[in-house]
Amino acid sequence: MRLRLLALALLGCLGLGLAAGCANPFKAPLSPEQDVLGAARATLRAVEEGQWATADEQYGRLVAAWRAIHRRVYLNADEGDIRAFEETLSELRAYLRHREQTDALATLYRLETLWHDIAKF
């Protein structure tokens, strides 16, 4: 009995260690339509290349991915982080509309950082 408890405790510690080192499962896309980070990076590439029509398309994909996944992310994220992410998305829309490359790039890098910080374990 004592040996079983010890084994169970060791397995529990191992499981906690593995869970702490894993990425947040709530942010993982379940389909390509939910890949927020992939859409943000595709938008970034388009802006870097000055392909504004593609950047607008990718921005639409980014917003759709966020809408598809945001409820899961809300489960364990700070409200301030969510608000900052959504405000940054809105700023990006304005920069893309006015073709402001430098500001759009800075905003996309900020979005990527915010995404990594949201609901970090």
From TrEMBL:
Keywords assigned: Signal
Recorded superkingdom: Bacteria
Signal peptide: 1-19
Protein name as catalogued: DUF4363 family protein
Natural source organism: Calditerricola satsumensis
Lineage start: Bacteria, Bacillati, Bacillota, Bacilli, Bacillales
